């Protein structure tokens, strides 16, 4: 059927077969083997266009293999393996199948050679992932899942609409680099932007990720947004507006992250901030910048999963992930704490950790290409990310004031998953060459220079100094049980209230209008009655039947006049 | 066997089933239901045989009965009609099995009368599908209305009678007051009533009148449930669920949009419509209907009522496809007849299965039911995703095709309407499913504890079958497109 | 849960070692070493040849000053944002934030449906 078997189909086959396997360690094993098979097959794929077939009258390319798609395919398989290991204990068949389908869709989208195939998998990621949110089984999670799904599918249908228009324009549905201009390309751009959590389109991310299950959030954090980054890198490299969008994206979430109480939402904000770096890389669009985007996405998936895993383990053990409820957990969950700190060091780009060797690719290229203000913003964002992800998360979860909670250490499989991820974070930081070799373009970048190490350490330690000083002087905002207004206010508060107002006033209008109409009709009937009724003048001359008829006719006419 | 014999046979078998039901009555139910099923299979086989022999060619009409010179009941084959006949007769087989499970599991009364009317409705639906001129179409359209009337009123309660009155009132009223006028007018204008590829009206009417004539057709064919002539469809939901599933999601409503497509393609002609722009207003009305019906659906707590409004919305996709007056749009509309049929019949059958197992009709009472009925809910999910238009299910192709059609005519707003409709569909179709899977409800937990589980086998297997059909259609949509493409007659 | 006295013997090995942090004097020690480290890093700028793209970077301790000032500004701004962005947890819906029951006795589990 195919010249080359699309590796991601393994995930779908797995999702179908899974319910037939006894729901214990055996099922866990099968689900762990699947990403390994997939990764191996991706590794072996010959470059070029494969698995092309005519499908419902359209020429689809199920496999477009080049270095850009391979690196994303590999890291997605890796992330799937790690999150499935972390989710070893989950016995809910729907979640298991949804996780496999989700990873498979994300990888499928990465290899899509045309826009229709992309759409199919694009929607696939939406519909499978929502079950990871609903599985939380709370009223809040249900509503959040609904909002999440609507926004995700909105992105999908925008993509579809854009493709339809593009097909009309160019007669082709191939997925190649586009230039913004027509309605078609803008629609596609917007579709990517929604999934990539562009500023003002971002709020589904912070809304949904903290609402999902412990394991669900880990899985969610890896795929959707990075898929969007890939799609942007493929479809709109070098689009200048992306640089500014990305810069804003790195900037505003860090403010929210400082005052947010739910630690998983803090991580969602910092996820958004990290996406900003990648978007800037895509916007600059040079070989170095695109390399930076791909490398940063790779490292980011790992350390972000690690952070979500460690906070998830805390949630799993204590029942809460709110900074205001936590603290002092280092005594009983020391391993989780250490893994969390490793994740924090990686996201903050400490030397010897993965963020250091990947983020600098983007930063230095921004300076190279002369985007000095953007460079300044990114530098600020780097300091800020250390501030909230690097310090705040471990500090409020594991240190700070003692909450008195003495939970058990995380279960073994979670520790194992975190351990492997932490190892990879350090390995990439210490020895980046294998990662550099995977990048789409030739790399001639040396991350470990005296200047780079010293300046980075200065930036980070003085940020830490600022944190310490503010903490000791009591200026640092305490963790409070609260929610912060974000763009979701528009559709969760403003629109519902607005619609309610409108519908109430329409209802009132109808009531008053109906009342007036009724009075008018009554008067007419009375008048008719007085002239045509039994006592009226006409009664003597007209037969009763004709009178009734007349009344009916006039009434009917009035009604028609009044209603139409 | 000649094609014409096969056509007649495919309609004769449902009539035979009807007669057999009337003869057997309530005695020997197994024999009676068995014969009906055999007739259904035989009828479907005839249509398949026609498909195999004829392919998607259009044949010469053959006259059954000439009422007056130039006014005859006549049949012929053409792709759209054959597709419709295939869907109606094929799904009848599935639905009959379901109906047996439902009627018995639910202890409904008067089975024989029910199956007789059901079979008769199928016969008239097939006759509509084969009609080769407006007159036949009109006659069988009315026959179908009357045949289904007794099904709507089947329960005999006051509510059922009220619903049936609304049903008959709107459908009959609209068809006599508007459709008949349109038919006669067309006859006067064109001098013929035959369905001819490319249309018969081109050059014979001026554009303003074309728009009015189209309005008479669009509203007169009340079965297409174009707003504001949609009220009959929710009213018909008092009927037993198999009726809602096959007739009010497939046969009757599809007869409506099928007629609209036929009128658009074979009476007006796509080119004529697109050059005169006479269908512009219909496009806007269809768009309004798509969105408004979805919004109403969101407010309904009764599952069947919600599905009914969803049908109103989805039917307007097909009307929209015709009104776009472009070959892509018309093909998309035709494709959507098939896609929606499979999706919606699945949803109705699942709603019925839930009713049989738990006697619950309201969505707010269905929290956590999926634990007890995973198979039903799985099928429901697949059907819902297909209706929404998500891959890998059939519905995504018709939506795509319609979008390409809208892009073809530069109607960006119509693309927007289709997008928005998907989102609304999600809210009202997936909400019950998510709650069924992951919310809990004390009553339902108690039910599960008491061993309440899936409905009887014959209530569950058919929706699973049609749900698989939705998946199947995703992979074979291309064949359907090539099959019905000739109707657009190369007008791009 | 009431804050309670920790029995060191019940802690995992690593946790026992880390109890060192429980002593406030040790925390102070960490803070002072951070101060010292920062000073050292600032001074380090004078002892090597910086490779820079921008003139701004040549300012001694530019990264240190930038990091400190921006972070302080970040926190102060964010604190200010609280005054008009912060709402009660039940602002959107009564059970919007974490409503699931979380029985205490299940927190020790090794396997569960989560």
Structure report:
- The complex is a heterotrimer of chains A (564), B (492) and C (114).
- Helices cover 72% and strands 3% of the residues of chain A.
- By secondary structure, chain A is mainly α.
- In chain A, strands 1-2 form a two-stranded antiparallel sheet.
- Chain A is globular and about 110 Å long.
- Chain B is mainly α.
- Chain B has a domain at 279-492.
- A two-stranded antiparallel sheet of chain B has the order 1-2.
- In chain B, helix 3 packs antiparallel against helix 9 (241-268) and helix 3 (79-105) packs antiparallel against helix 18.
- Chain C has 114 residues and is an all-alpha fold.
- The longest helix of chain C has 24 residues, at 62-85.
- The radius of gyration of chain C is 24 Å and the shape is flat.
- Chain C has helices at 13-18, 24-44, 62-85; one strand spanning 86-87.
- Chains in contact: A-B, A-C.
- Chains A and C meet through helix 6, helix 10, helix 12, helix 13 and helix 14 of A and helix 1, helix 2, helix 3 and strand 1 of C.
- Strand 3 (483-484) of chain A pairs antiparallel with strand 1 of chain C.
Which tags fit this structure?
heterotrimer, B: 492 residues, mainly alpha, two-stranded antiparallel sheet, C: 114 residues, 2 domains, 3 helices, 2% strand
- Structural class per helix/strand content of chain C? mainly alpha
Question: Could you tell me how far the N terminus lies from the C terminus of chain C, measured between alpha carbons in angstroms?
Answer: 23 Å
The SSE order of chain C reads: HHHE
Question: How large, in whole angstroms, is the Cα Rg of chain B?
Answer: 21 Å
Number of strands of chain C: 1
Question: How do the helices and strands follow one another from N- to C-terminus of chain B?
Answer: HHEEHHHHHHHHHHHHHHHH
Strand content of chain B: under 5%
- Stretches of chain C where pLDDT is under 50 for at least 5 consecutive residues are none
Radius of gyration of chain C, in Å, reads 24 Å
The number of helical elements of chain C comes to 3
Task: Please summarize the sheet with the most strands of chain C.
Answer: none
Reading side by side through the largest sheet of chain B, how are the strands ordered? 1-2
The number of E-state strands of chain B comes to: 2
Q: Name the average pLDDT of chain B.
A: 88
Q: How many structural domains of chain C?
A: 2
Oligomer kind: heterotrimer
Biggest contact: A-C, 87 and 74 residues
Based on CA inertia axes, which overall geometry of chain B fits?
globular
Euclidean distance between termini CA atoms of chain B: 37 Å
């Amino acid at each position: 059927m195919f010249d080359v078997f699309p590796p991601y189909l393994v995930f779908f086959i797995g999702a179908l077969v899974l319910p037939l396997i006894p729901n214990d360690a055996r099922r866990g094993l099968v689900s762990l083997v699947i990403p390994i098979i997939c990764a191996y097959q991706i590794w072996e794929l010959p470059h070029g266009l494969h698995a092309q077939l005519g499908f419902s009258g359209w020429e689809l390319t199920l496999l477009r293999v080049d270095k850009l798609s391979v690196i994303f395919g590999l890291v997605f398989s890796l992330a799937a393996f790690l999150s499935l290991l972390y989710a070893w204990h989950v016995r809910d068949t729907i979640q298991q199948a949804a996780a496999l389908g989700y990873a498979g869709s994300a990888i499928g989208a990465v290899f899509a050679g045309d826009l229709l195939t992309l759409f199919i998998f694009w929607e696939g990621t939406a519909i499978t992932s929502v079950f990871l949110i609903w599985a939380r089984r709370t009223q809040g999670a249900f509503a959040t899942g609904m909002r999440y799904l609507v926004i995700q599918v909105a992105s999908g249908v925008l993509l579809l609409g854009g493709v339809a228009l593009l097909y009309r324009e160019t007669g082709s549905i191939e997925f190649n680099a586009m230039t913004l201009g027509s309605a078609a390309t803008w629609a596609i751009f917007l579709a990517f932007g929604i999934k990539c959590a562009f500023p003002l389109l971002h709020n589904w991310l912070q809304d949904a990720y903290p609402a999902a299950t412990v394991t669900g959030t880990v899985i969610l954090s890896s795929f959707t947004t990075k898929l969007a980054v890939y799609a942007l890198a493929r479809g709109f490299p070098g689009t200048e507006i992306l640089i500014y969008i990305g810069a804003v994206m790195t900037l505003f979430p860090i403010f929210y992250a400082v005052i947010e109480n739910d630690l998983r939402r803090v991580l969602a904000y910092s996820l958004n901030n990290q996406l900003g770096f990648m978007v800037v890389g895509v916007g600059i669009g040079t070989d170095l910048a695109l390399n930076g985007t791909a490398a940063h996405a790779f490292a980011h998936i790992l350390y972000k999963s690690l952070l979500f895993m460690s906070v998830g383990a805390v949630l799993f053990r204590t029942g809460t992930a709110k900074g205001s409820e936590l603290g002092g957990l280092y005594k009983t969950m020391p391993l989780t704490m250490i893994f969390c700190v490793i994740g924090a060091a990686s996201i903050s780009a400490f030397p010897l950790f993965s963020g250091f060797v990947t983020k600098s690719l983007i930063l230095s290229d921004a300076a190279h290409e002369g985007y000095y203000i953007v460079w300044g913003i990114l530098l600020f964002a780097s300091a800020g990310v250390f501030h909230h992800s690097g310090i705040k998360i471990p500090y409020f979860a594991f240190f700070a004031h003692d909450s008195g909670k003495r939970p058990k250490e995380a279960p073994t499989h979670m520790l194992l998953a975190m351990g492997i991820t932490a190892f990879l974070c350090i390995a990439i930081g210490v020895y980046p060459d294998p990662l550099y070799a995977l990048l789409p373009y030739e790399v001639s970048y040396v991350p470990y220079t005296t200047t780079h190490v010293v300046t980075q350490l200065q930036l980070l330690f003085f940020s830490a100094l600022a944190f310490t000083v503010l903490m000791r002087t009591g200026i640092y905002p305490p963790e409070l049980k609260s929610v912060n207004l974000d763009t979701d206010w528009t559709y969760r508060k403003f629109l519902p209230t607005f619609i309610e107002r409108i519908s109430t006033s329409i209802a009132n209008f109808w009531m008053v209008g109906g009342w007036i109409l009724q009075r008018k009709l009554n008067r007419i009937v009375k008048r008719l009655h007085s002239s045509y009724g039994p006592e009226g003048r006409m009664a003597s001359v007209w037969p009763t039947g004709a009178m009734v008829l007349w009344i009916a006719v006039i009434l009917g006419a009035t009604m028609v006049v009044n209603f139409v | 066997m000649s094609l014409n014999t096969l056509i007649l046979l495919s309609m004769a078998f449902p009539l035979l089933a009807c007669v057999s039901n009337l003869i057997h009555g309530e005695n020997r139910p197994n024999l009676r239901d068995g014969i009906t099923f055999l007739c259904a299979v035989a009828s479907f086989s005839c249509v398949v045989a026609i498909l195999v022999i004829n392919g998607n060619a259009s044949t010469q009409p053959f006259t059954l009965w000439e009422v007056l010179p130039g006014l005859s009941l006549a049949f012929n084959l053409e792709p759209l009609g054959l597709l419709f006949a295939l869907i109606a007769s094929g799904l009848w087989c599935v639905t009959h099995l379901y109906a047996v499970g439902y009627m018995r599991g639910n202890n409904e009364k008067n089975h024989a009368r029910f199956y007789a009317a059901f079979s008769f409705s199928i016969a008239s639906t097939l006759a509509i599908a084969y009609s080769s001129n407006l007159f036949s179409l009109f006659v069988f359209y009315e026959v179908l209305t009357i045949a289904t009337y007794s099904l709507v009123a089947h329960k005999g309660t006051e509510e059922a009678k009220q619903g049936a009155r609304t049903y008959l009132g709107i459908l009959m009223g609209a068809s006599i007051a508007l459709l008949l006028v349109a038919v006669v007018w067309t006859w006067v204008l064109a001098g013929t009533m035959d369905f001819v590829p490319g249309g018969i009206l081109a050059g014979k009417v001026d554009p303003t009148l074309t728009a009015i004539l189209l309005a008479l057709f669009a509203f007169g064919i009340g079965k297409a449930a174009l707003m504001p002539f949609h009220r009959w469809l929710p009213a018909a939901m008092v009927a037993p669920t198999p009726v809602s599933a096959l007739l009010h999601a497939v046969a009757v409503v599809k007869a409506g949009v099928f007629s609209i497509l036929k009128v658009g393609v074979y009476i007006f002609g796509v080119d004529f419509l697109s050059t005169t722009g006479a269908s512009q207003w219909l496009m806007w009305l269809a768009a309004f209907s798509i969105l408004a019906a979805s919004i109403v659906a969101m407010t309904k707590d009764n599952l069947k009522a919600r599905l009914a409004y969803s049908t109103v919305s989805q039917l307007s996709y097909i009307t929209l496809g015709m009104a776009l007056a472009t070959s892509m749009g018309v093909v998309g509309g035709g494709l959507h007849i098939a896609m929606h049929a499979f999706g919606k019949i699945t949803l109705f059958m699942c709603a019925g299965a839930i009713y049989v197992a738990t006697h619950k009709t309201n969505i707010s009472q269905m929290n956590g039911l999926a634990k007890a009925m995973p198979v039903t809910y799985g099928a429901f999910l697949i059907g819902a995703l297909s209706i929404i238009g998500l891959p890998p299910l059939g519905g995504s192709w018709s939506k795509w095709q319609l979008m390409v059609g809208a892009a073809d005519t530069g109607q960006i707003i119509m693309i927007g309407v289709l997008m928005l409709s998907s989102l609304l569909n999600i809210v009202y179709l997936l909400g019950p499913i998510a709650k069924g899977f992951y919310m809990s409800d004390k009553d339902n937990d108690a039910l599960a504890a008491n061993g309440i589980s899936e409905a009887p086998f014959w209530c569950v297997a058919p929706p699973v079958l049609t749900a698989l059909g939705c998946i199947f259609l995703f992979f074979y949509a291309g064949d359907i497109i090539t099959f019905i493409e000739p109707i657009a007659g190369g007008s791009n | 849960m009431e804050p309670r006295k920790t029995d060191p013997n019940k802690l995992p090995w690593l946790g026992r070692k880390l109890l060192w942090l429980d002593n406030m004097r040790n925390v102070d020690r960490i803070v002072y070493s951070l101060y010292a480290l920062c000073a050292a890093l600032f001074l380090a700028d004078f002892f090597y040849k910086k490779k820079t793209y921008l003139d701004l970077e040549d300012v001694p301790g530019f990264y240190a000053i930038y990091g400190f000032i921006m972070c302080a500004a970040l926190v102060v701004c964010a604190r200010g944002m609280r005054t008009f962005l912060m709402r009660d947890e039940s602002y959107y819906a009564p059970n919007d934030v974490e409503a699931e029951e979380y029985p205490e006795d299940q927190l020790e589990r090794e396997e569960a449906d989560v």
